[in-house]
Design brief:
The complex is a heterodimer of chains A (111) and B (118). In chain A, strand 4 and strand 5 form a beta hairpin. With 111 residues, chain A is mostly beta strands. In chain A, strands 2, 4, 5, 6, 9, 10 and 11 form a seven-stranded mixed sheet that branches. In chain A, 0% of the residues lie in helices and 49% in strands. By secondary structure, chain B is mostly beta strands. Chain B contains no helices and ten strands. In chain B, strands 2-10-9-4-5-6 form a six-stranded mixed sheet, with no helix packed on it. A four-stranded antiparallel sheet of chain B has the order 1-3-8-7, with no helix packed on it. In chain B, strand 7 and strand 8 form a beta hairpin. Chain B starts with a strand and ends with a strand. The model of chain B has no long low-confidence stretch (mean pLDDT 96). The chains are: A mainly beta (111), B mainly beta (118).
Amino acid sequence: DVVVTQSPLSLPVTLGQPASISCRSSQSLVYSDGNTYLNWFHQRPGQSPRRLIYQVSNRDSGVPDRFSGSGSGTDFTLKISRVEAEDVGVYYCMQGTHWFTFGQGTKLEIK
Amino acid sequence: EVQLLESGGGLAQPGGSLRLSCRATKFTFASYSMNWVRQAPGKGLEWVSAITGSGDRTFYVDSVKGRFTISRDNSKNTLYLQMDSLRADDTAVYFCATLTRLPTPDYWGQGTLVTVSS
C-alpha cells in the first residue's frame, strides 16, 4: 500500500508570511498514462474538503494564485505565498495513482 | 449548482448494519466513478470505497472488505454504501466524493455521521 507522509503536522504562520507543506509518497506517483495524480485539499472545521490543486500543480477554479503546487515522483510541496486569515484549517495531500491515500493532514493556524 | 447529498447515517450497534445514500443533482452522475471517504472524529481523511461509472467494478480499503458494499443506481443518480458487521472504529463522518483524476471539478457531499456504539 502507498503511504503518504505530510510535514509539518502543525503550521503556525503570521498573516502575510509564506507557508510550505511537504508531502512524500512511499512509491512514485507517476501513472502509466504519464500523469502524476497528486492533489491538495483544504478543509475548514465543520466543512467538507475542497480540492485546491490537482495533478501536482494545477489550481482549481476559484483558487487564489497565492497557492501553488510543485514536485515530482515521490516528493511534493504546497506553498502559500502570503497567508491570509481564510487559509486556516487542515491541508491534505492525496495520491490518486495507486487508488487513493491521504496524508495525515497539516493544521495551519495564525500566530 | 452540483450537489451531493448524503443520508442514512445514525447510531448503530456493534455488529449492526446501516445503508448510506448519496444523491447527486445537476451532475452527469453516470459519467463519474464515485467514492466514499470517511473521517473519524478529530482525525484525517480515509478513502473507503470506489465504484466505476457503470457500476461494473468496485474497490475497497482492506479494513472494510467483506463488510461494506458500494453500489449505485444511475437512473436515480444515487450512490450507496451498505455497511454490515459494523465496528466501533467505523465511527466517522462519511462523505461521498468524485475524487476525479480528470482536470474537471471535484465534488464532495456534506457528510453523514455514523456512530457505532452499544
